[in-house]
Amino acid sequence: MITGTAEPRRTPLYEAHKQLDAKIIDFGGWLMPVNYPPGIIDEHNATRNAVGVFDVSHMGEIHFRGPRATAAVQHLVTNDVSKLADGHALYAVACRTSGGIVDDLIVYRVAADHYMLVVNASNIDKDFQWFSQHVGSWCELDDASDETALISFQGPKAAAALQPLTSFDLTALKSFDFTTTAQVAGLPVWIARTGYTGEDGFEIFCRNTDARALWDALLAAAREIGGMPVGLGARDTLRLESRLSLYGNELTDDTTPFEAGLAWVVKFDAGNFIGKDALLHQHTGGVRRKLVGFVMLGRGVARHGYTIHQTDPAGVGGRLGSVTSGTLGPTIQKNIGLGYVAAECSAPGTRIYIDCRGKWVEAEIVKGPFYRRPRP
Protein backbone atom coordinates (compact mmCIF):
# COMPACT_ATOMS: atom_id res chain seq x y z
CA MET A 1 0.00 0.00 0.00
CA ILE A 2 1.40 3.41 -0.98
CA THR A 3 1.63 5.93 1.86
CA GLY A 4 3.19 9.30 2.54
CA THR A 5 4.80 11.06 -0.41
CA ALA A 6 5.59 7.93 -2.42
CA GLU A 7 5.07 8.26 -6.15
CA PRO A 8 1.96 6.49 -7.45
CA ARG A 9 2.67 3.12 -9.02
CA ARG A 10 1.93 2.15 -12.61
CA THR A 11 0.53 -1.09 -13.94
CA PRO A 12 2.29 -2.67 -16.94
CA LEU A 13 -0.53 -1.24 -19.09
CA TYR A 14 0.00 2.41 -18.14
CA GLU A 15 1.43 3.36 -21.54
CA ALA A 16 -1.45 1.61 -23.29
CA HIS A 17 -3.90 3.75 -21.34
CA LYS A 18 -2.03 6.93 -22.24
CA GLN A 19 -2.06 5.99 -25.91
CA LEU A 20 -5.83 5.51 -25.68
CA ASP A 21 -6.19 9.07 -24.27
CA ALA A 22 -7.50 7.80 -20.95
CA LYS A 23 -8.13 10.19 -18.10
CA ILE A 24 -5.71 8.90 -15.47
CA ILE A 25 -6.01 9.49 -11.72
CA ASP A 26 -4.22 8.42 -8.56
CA PHE A 27 -6.37 5.60 -7.21
CA GLY A 28 -5.13 4.22 -3.91
CA GLY A 29 -1.51 4.81 -4.87
CA TRP A 30 -1.88 3.61 -8.47
CA LEU A 31 -2.14 5.63 -11.68
CA MET A 32 -5.28 4.16 -13.21
CA PRO A 33 -7.64 5.07 -16.06
CA VAL A 34 -10.93 6.49 -14.82
CA ASN A 35 -12.38 6.63 -18.34
CA TYR A 36 -11.52 6.70 -22.03
CA PRO A 37 -13.11 8.74 -24.82
CA PRO A 38 -16.03 8.99 -25.36
CA GLY A 39 -16.79 8.42 -21.66
CA ILE A 40 -18.18 6.44 -18.75
CA ILE A 41 -21.72 5.94 -20.06
CA ASP A 42 -20.48 4.41 -23.32
CA GLU A 43 -18.10 2.13 -21.43
CA HIS A 44 -20.88 1.05 -19.06
CA ASN A 45 -23.27 0.30 -21.93
CA ALA A 46 -20.60 -1.54 -23.93
CA THR A 47 -20.05 -3.86 -20.95
CA ARG A 48 -23.76 -4.48 -20.46
CA ASN A 49 -24.38 -5.10 -24.19
CA ALA A 50 -21.11 -6.51 -25.59
CA VAL A 51 -17.81 -6.68 -23.69
CA GLY A 52 -15.60 -4.37 -21.67
CA VAL A 53 -11.85 -4.74 -21.16
CA PHE A 54 -10.54 -3.65 -17.76
CA ASP A 55 -7.00 -3.28 -16.45
CA VAL A 56 -7.15 -4.59 -12.88
CA SER A 57 -3.45 -5.34 -12.56
CA HIS A 58 -3.34 -3.24 -9.40
CA MET A 59 -5.11 -6.06 -7.55
CA GLY A 60 -2.98 -8.32 -5.36
CA GLU A 61 -2.19 -12.03 -5.74
CA ILE A 62 -0.92 -13.89 -2.68
CA HIS A 63 -0.04 -17.58 -2.90
CA PHE A 64 -0.20 -20.11 -0.06
CA ARG A 65 1.87 -23.26 -0.59
CA GLY A 66 2.56 -26.31 1.56
CA PRO A 67 0.85 -29.26 3.28
CA ARG A 68 -0.98 -26.92 5.68
CA ALA A 69 -2.10 -24.44 3.02
CA THR A 70 -5.77 -25.44 3.33
CA ALA A 71 -5.74 -25.04 7.10
CA ALA A 72 -3.95 -21.70 6.81
CA VAL A 73 -6.44 -20.22 4.37
CA GLN A 74 -9.39 -21.56 6.37
CA HIS A 75 -8.06 -19.95 9.53
CA LEU A 76 -8.08 -16.59 7.75
CA VAL A 77 -11.44 -16.59 5.93
CA THR A 78 -15.05 -17.09 6.99
CA ASN A 79 -16.29 -19.13 4.02
CA ASP A 80 -15.83 -22.90 3.84
CA VAL A 81 -12.61 -23.63 1.96
CA SER A 82 -13.09 -27.39 2.36
CA LYS A 83 -15.88 -27.22 -0.24
CA LEU A 84 -13.39 -26.25 -2.96
CA ALA A 85 -11.96 -28.71 -5.47
CA ASP A 86 -8.96 -28.00 -7.67
CA GLY A 87 -9.82 -25.38 -10.27
CA HIS A 88 -12.63 -23.83 -8.23
CA ALA A 89 -12.83 -20.51 -6.39
CA LEU A 90 -15.07 -18.80 -3.86
CA TYR A 91 -15.75 -15.33 -2.52
CA ALA A 92 -14.86 -14.75 1.13
CA VAL A 93 -13.90 -12.20 3.73
CA ALA A 94 -11.05 -12.19 6.20
CA CYS A 95 -11.99 -10.77 9.59
CA ARG A 96 -10.36 -9.40 12.68
CA THR A 97 -11.12 -10.91 16.08
CA SER A 98 -13.75 -8.16 16.43
CA GLY A 99 -15.52 -9.39 13.30
CA GLY A 100 -14.45 -6.31 11.34
CA ILE A 101 -13.48 -7.02 7.74
CA VAL A 102 -9.75 -6.99 6.95
CA ASP A 103 -10.56 -7.49 3.26
CA ASP A 104 -12.93 -9.18 0.88
CA LEU A 105 -11.23 -11.51 -1.56
CA ILE A 106 -11.47 -14.52 -3.84
CA VAL A 107 -9.87 -17.82 -2.86
CA TYR A 108 -8.61 -19.97 -5.77
CA ARG A 109 -7.72 -23.60 -5.07
CA VAL A 110 -4.94 -24.63 -7.44
CA ALA A 111 -4.20 -27.85 -5.55
CA ALA A 112 -4.56 -29.23 -2.04
CA ASP A 113 -1.22 -27.61 -1.20
CA HIS A 114 -1.58 -24.45 -3.27
CA TYR A 115 -4.08 -21.60 -3.04
CA MET A 116 -4.09 -18.11 -4.49
CA LEU A 117 -5.95 -15.25 -2.80
CA VAL A 118 -6.78 -12.18 -4.89
CA VAL A 119 -7.01 -9.14 -2.62
CA ASN A 120 -7.82 -5.47 -3.05
CA ALA A 121 -5.06 -3.21 -4.33
CA SER A 122 -5.10 -0.79 -1.41
CA ASN A 123 -4.88 -3.69 1.06
CA ILE A 124 -2.01 -5.74 -0.39
CA ASP A 125 0.56 -4.79 2.25
CA LYS A 126 -1.98 -4.84 5.09
CA ASP A 127 -3.28 -8.25 4.04
CA PHE A 128 0.14 -9.81 3.58
CA GLN A 129 1.18 -8.62 7.03
CA TRP A 130 -2.06 -9.94 8.54
CA PHE A 131 -1.69 -13.30 6.82
CA SER A 132 1.97 -13.58 7.81
CA GLN A 133 1.21 -12.69 11.41
CA HIS A 134 -1.41 -15.41 11.79
CA VAL A 135 -0.35 -18.26 9.49
CA GLY A 136 3.14 -17.36 8.31
CA SER A 137 4.57 -20.36 10.16
CA TRP A 138 1.95 -22.73 8.74
CA CYS A 139 2.92 -22.56 5.07
CA GLU A 140 4.88 -20.58 2.51
CA LEU A 141 3.36 -17.18 1.66
CA ASP A 142 4.34 -15.49 -1.60
CA ASP A 143 3.14 -12.04 -2.62
CA ALA A 144 3.23 -12.32 -6.42
CA SER A 145 1.40 -9.03 -7.05
CA ASP A 146 4.38 -7.28 -8.63
CA GLU A 147 4.91 -10.09 -11.15
CA THR A 148 1.25 -10.66 -12.04
CA ALA A 149 -1.02 -8.71 -14.38
CA LEU A 150 -4.79 -9.12 -14.43
CA ILE A 151 -7.18 -8.15 -17.22
CA SER A 152 -10.94 -8.45 -16.81
CA PHE A 153 -13.04 -9.28 -19.88
CA GLN A 154 -16.69 -8.75 -19.01
CA GLY A 155 -20.02 -8.75 -20.80
CA PRO A 156 -22.66 -10.96 -22.45
CA LYS A 157 -20.44 -11.46 -25.52
CA ALA A 158 -17.24 -12.12 -23.54
CA ALA A 159 -17.11 -15.84 -24.22
CA ALA A 160 -17.82 -15.41 -27.93
CA ALA A 161 -15.07 -12.80 -28.26
CA LEU A 162 -12.51 -14.70 -26.18
CA GLN A 163 -12.97 -18.20 -27.62
CA PRO A 164 -11.20 -17.52 -30.96
CA LEU A 165 -8.10 -16.43 -29.02
CA THR A 166 -7.72 -19.70 -27.09
CA SER A 167 -7.87 -23.42 -27.76
CA PHE A 168 -9.23 -23.96 -24.25
CA ASP A 169 -12.94 -24.77 -24.29
CA LEU A 170 -14.47 -21.90 -22.32
CA THR A 171 -17.74 -23.77 -21.89
CA ALA A 172 -15.84 -26.02 -19.46
CA LEU A 173 -15.62 -23.09 -17.05
CA LYS A 174 -18.72 -22.45 -14.98
CA SER A 175 -19.05 -19.48 -12.64
CA PHE A 176 -16.07 -19.37 -10.23
CA ASP A 177 -14.18 -22.08 -12.13
CA PHE A 178 -10.66 -21.44 -13.41
CA THR A 179 -7.83 -23.07 -15.33
CA THR A 180 -4.08 -22.60 -14.96
CA THR A 181 -3.12 -24.32 -18.22
CA ALA A 182 -4.59 -22.15 -20.98
CA GLN A 183 -3.12 -19.84 -23.57
CA VAL A 184 -4.70 -16.68 -24.94
CA ALA A 185 -3.20 -15.15 -28.09
CA GLY A 186 -0.33 -17.61 -27.68
CA LEU A 187 0.48 -16.39 -24.15
CA PRO A 188 0.37 -18.60 -21.03
CA VAL A 189 -2.44 -17.45 -18.75
CA TRP A 190 -4.81 -18.42 -15.99
CA ILE A 191 -8.48 -17.90 -16.93
CA ALA A 192 -11.16 -17.54 -14.24
CA ARG A 193 -14.88 -17.13 -14.82
CA THR A 194 -15.15 -14.38 -12.24
CA GLY A 195 -15.79 -10.64 -12.33
CA TYR A 196 -17.09 -7.51 -10.64
CA THR A 197 -19.71 -6.14 -13.04
CA GLY A 198 -22.79 -8.32 -12.67
CA GLU A 199 -22.18 -9.71 -16.16
CA ASP A 200 -20.74 -12.98 -17.38
CA GLY A 201 -17.05 -12.74 -18.09
CA PHE A 202 -13.51 -13.74 -17.33
CA GLU A 203 -10.50 -12.54 -15.40
CA ILE A 204 -7.23 -13.41 -17.09
CA PHE A 205 -3.94 -13.57 -15.18
CA CYS A 206 -0.59 -13.34 -16.95
CA ARG A 207 3.01 -12.36 -16.37
CA ASN A 208 3.64 -8.62 -16.27
CA THR A 209 5.90 -8.95 -19.30
CA ASP A 210 3.01 -10.41 -21.34
CA ALA A 211 0.40 -7.89 -20.25
CA ARG A 212 0.63 -5.47 -23.17
CA ALA A 213 0.43 -8.18 -25.84
CA LEU A 214 -2.53 -9.77 -24.05
CA TRP A 215 -4.29 -6.41 -23.64
CA ASP A 216 -3.88 -5.56 -27.32
CA ALA A 217 -5.27 -8.93 -28.40
CA LEU A 218 -8.24 -8.75 -26.05
CA LEU A 219 -9.05 -5.16 -26.97
CA ALA A 220 -8.95 -5.94 -30.69
CA ALA A 221 -11.32 -8.89 -30.15
CA ALA A 222 -13.65 -6.72 -28.07
CA ARG A 223 -13.78 -3.92 -30.63
CA GLU A 224 -14.87 -6.37 -33.33
CA ILE A 225 -18.16 -6.94 -31.51
CA GLY A 226 -18.81 -3.46 -30.16
CA GLY A 227 -16.67 -3.64 -27.02
CA MET A 228 -14.16 -1.14 -25.67
CA PRO A 229 -11.71 -0.47 -22.85
CA VAL A 230 -13.34 0.43 -19.54
CA GLY A 231 -11.95 2.50 -16.67
CA LEU A 232 -12.65 2.87 -12.98
CA GLY A 233 -15.66 5.13 -13.48
CA ALA A 234 -17.79 2.57 -15.30
CA ARG A 235 -16.39 -0.22 -13.15
CA ASP A 236 -18.00 1.60 -10.23
CA THR A 237 -21.38 2.16 -11.91
CA LEU A 238 -21.46 -1.46 -13.07
CA ARG A 239 -20.70 -2.92 -9.65
CA LEU A 240 -23.10 -0.56 -7.90
CA GLU A 241 -26.03 -1.44 -10.19
CA SER A 242 -25.29 -5.06 -9.32
CA ARG A 243 -25.06 -4.15 -5.62
CA LEU A 244 -21.49 -5.39 -5.21
CA SER A 245 -19.68 -3.91 -2.25
CA LEU A 246 -16.43 -1.96 -2.48
CA TYR A 247 -13.75 -2.21 0.17
CA GLY A 248 -13.19 1.19 1.74
CA ASN A 249 -16.83 2.15 1.14
CA GLU A 250 -19.26 -0.60 2.16
CA LEU A 251 -16.61 -2.84 3.73
CA THR A 252 -14.02 -1.68 6.27
CA ASP A 253 -12.19 -2.84 9.36
CA ASP A 254 -15.16 -1.43 11.33
CA THR A 255 -17.94 -3.26 9.46
CA THR A 256 -18.82 -6.92 9.85
CA PRO A 257 -20.19 -9.43 7.32
CA PHE A 258 -23.56 -9.50 9.10
CA GLU A 259 -23.87 -5.71 8.96
CA ALA A 260 -22.80 -5.70 5.31
CA GLY A 261 -25.32 -8.30 4.13
CA LEU A 262 -22.64 -10.96 3.69
CA ALA A 263 -23.98 -13.53 6.15
CA TRP A 264 -23.88 -16.05 3.29
CA VAL A 265 -20.06 -16.07 3.32
CA VAL A 266 -19.90 -16.91 7.04
CA LYS A 267 -19.89 -20.66 7.60
CA PHE A 268 -19.61 -21.42 11.31
CA ASP A 269 -18.91 -25.11 10.69
CA ALA A 270 -15.88 -24.25 8.52
CA GLY A 271 -13.41 -24.26 11.40
CA ASN A 272 -11.93 -21.92 13.97
CA PHE A 273 -11.45 -18.92 11.70
CA ILE A 274 -10.41 -15.53 13.06
CA GLY A 275 -13.41 -13.51 14.21
CA LYS A 276 -15.68 -16.53 14.69
CA ASP A 277 -16.61 -15.76 18.31
CA ALA A 278 -17.54 -12.16 17.57
CA LEU A 279 -19.58 -13.17 14.54
CA LEU A 280 -21.39 -15.88 16.51
CA HIS A 281 -22.37 -13.20 19.02
CA GLN A 282 -23.78 -11.03 16.21
CA HIS A 283 -25.50 -14.00 14.63
CA THR A 284 -27.43 -14.75 17.82
CA GLY A 285 -27.80 -11.21 19.15
CA GLY A 286 -28.41 -9.30 15.94
CA VAL A 287 -26.79 -6.14 14.62
CA ARG A 288 -27.51 -2.48 15.26
CA ARG A 289 -27.01 -1.34 11.67
CA LYS A 290 -27.40 -2.85 8.23
CA LEU A 291 -26.24 -2.06 4.73
CA VAL A 292 -29.19 -1.21 2.49
CA GLY A 293 -29.74 -0.30 -1.12
CA PHE A 294 -31.98 2.64 -1.97
CA VAL A 295 -33.47 4.40 -4.98
CA MET A 296 -33.78 8.17 -4.95
CA LEU A 297 -37.38 9.32 -5.36
CA GLY A 298 -36.54 13.00 -5.69
CA ARG A 299 -33.96 14.79 -7.81
CA GLY A 300 -30.47 14.30 -6.45
CA VAL A 301 -27.53 11.93 -6.40
CA ALA A 302 -26.40 10.41 -3.11
CA ARG A 303 -22.64 10.60 -2.57
CA HIS A 304 -20.27 8.86 -0.20
CA GLY A 305 -20.56 10.43 3.25
CA TYR A 306 -23.97 12.06 2.84
CA THR A 307 -26.14 11.53 5.92
CA ILE A 308 -29.31 9.41 5.93
CA HIS A 309 -32.31 10.50 8.00
CA GLN A 310 -35.60 8.98 9.05
CA THR A 311 -37.77 11.98 8.12
CA ASP A 312 -37.48 15.28 6.32
CA PRO A 313 -36.17 18.38 8.18
CA ALA A 314 -39.65 19.23 9.44
CA GLY A 315 -40.09 15.82 11.01
CA VAL A 316 -38.94 14.41 14.31
CA GLY A 317 -36.93 11.42 13.09
CA GLY A 318 -33.21 11.44 13.67
CA ARG A 319 -30.13 10.45 11.71
CA LEU A 320 -30.06 6.79 10.67
CA GLY A 321 -26.59 6.50 9.13
CA SER A 322 -24.64 7.53 6.07
CA VAL A 323 -24.24 6.81 2.36
CA THR A 324 -21.34 4.59 1.33
CA SER A 325 -21.80 4.75 -2.46
CA GLY A 326 -24.16 6.49 -4.87
CA THR A 327 -24.49 7.20 -8.58
CA LEU A 328 -26.81 7.29 -11.55
CA GLY A 329 -27.34 3.74 -12.78
CA PRO A 330 -26.98 4.10 -16.56
CA THR A 331 -28.76 0.82 -17.34
CA ILE A 332 -31.73 1.33 -15.05
CA GLN A 333 -31.80 5.14 -15.39
CA LYS A 334 -32.29 5.73 -11.68
CA ASN A 335 -30.21 7.41 -9.01
CA ILE A 336 -29.21 4.63 -6.63
CA GLY A 337 -27.05 4.16 -3.57
CA LEU A 338 -25.88 2.02 -0.69
CA GLY A 339 -25.56 3.02 2.93
CA TYR A 340 -25.74 1.91 6.54
CA VAL A 341 -28.88 2.59 8.55
CA ALA A 342 -30.21 1.55 11.94
CA ALA A 343 -31.33 -2.08 11.72
CA GLU A 344 -34.89 -1.31 12.81
CA CYS A 345 -35.29 1.03 9.82
CA SER A 346 -33.74 -1.23 7.18
CA ALA A 347 -36.79 -3.04 5.77
CA PRO A 348 -37.46 -2.78 2.01
CA GLY A 349 -40.12 -0.15 1.34
CA THR A 350 -38.94 2.12 4.14
CA ARG A 351 -38.80 5.80 3.13
CA ILE A 352 -35.67 7.71 4.11
CA TYR A 353 -34.14 11.11 3.37
CA ILE A 354 -30.65 11.83 2.07
CA ASP A 355 -29.05 15.15 2.96
CA CYS A 356 -27.54 16.11 -0.41
CA ARG A 357 -25.48 19.10 0.71
CA GLY A 358 -28.38 20.79 2.45
CA LYS A 359 -31.12 19.53 0.13
CA TRP A 360 -33.09 16.69 1.68
CA VAL A 361 -34.14 14.17 -0.97
CA GLU A 362 -36.56 11.33 -0.34
CA ALA A 363 -35.46 7.78 -1.16
CA GLU A 364 -36.84 4.28 -0.74
CA ILE A 365 -34.98 1.22 0.56
CA VAL A 366 -35.19 -1.67 -1.91
CA LYS A 367 -34.34 -5.35 -1.80
CA GLY A 368 -31.66 -7.06 -3.86
CA PRO A 369 -29.57 -5.82 -6.79
CA PHE A 370 -30.74 -2.82 -8.77
CA TYR A 371 -29.88 -4.70 -11.97
CA ARG A 372 -29.80 -8.40 -12.84
CA ARG A 373 -28.41 -9.57 -16.15
CA PRO A 374 -30.86 -11.34 -18.43
CA ARG A 375 -30.66 -15.12 -18.26
CA PRO A 376 -30.27 -17.04 -21.52
Q: How is the secondary structure organized here?
A:
Elements: E1 9-10, H1 14-19, E2 23-27, E3 30-35, H2 40-49, E4 52-55, E5 60-65, H3 69-76, E6 88-95, E7 101-111, E8 114-119, H4 124-135, E9 140-143, E10 148-154, H5 158-162, E11 178-184, E12 187-192, E13 201-207, H6 211-223, E14 228-230, H7 232-241, H8 276-285, E15 289-296, E16 307-309, E17 319-329, E18 334-342, E19 351-356, E20 359-366
Parallel strand pairs: 1-3, 4-14
Antiparallel strand pairs: 2-3, 4-10, 5-8, 5-9, 6-7, 7-8, 10-13, 11-12, 12-13, 15-18, 15-20, 16-17, 16-19, 17-18, 19-20
Plain-language structure description:
By secondary structure, the protein is α+β, with helices and mostly antiparallel strands. Among the domains are: 9-58 and 147-241, Gyrase A, domain 2 (2-Layer Sandwich), CATH 3.30.1360.120; 288-366, Elongation Factor Tu (Ef-tu), domain 3, CATH 2.40.30. Helices cover 20% and strands 34% of the residues. It is built from eight helices and 20 strands. The strands form four sheets. The chain has a six-stranded mixed β-sheet. Helix 2 (40-49) crosses helix 7. The longest helix is centred in the middle third of the chain and has 13 residues, at 211-223. The two termini are 41 Å apart. 45% of the residues are buried. The model has no long low-confidence stretch (mean pLDDT 96).
Which tags fit this structure?
376 residues; single chain; 8 helices; six-stranded antiparallel β-barrel; Elongation Factor Tu (Ef-tu), domain 3; globular; six-stranded mixed beta sheet; alpha+beta; Gyrase A, domain 2
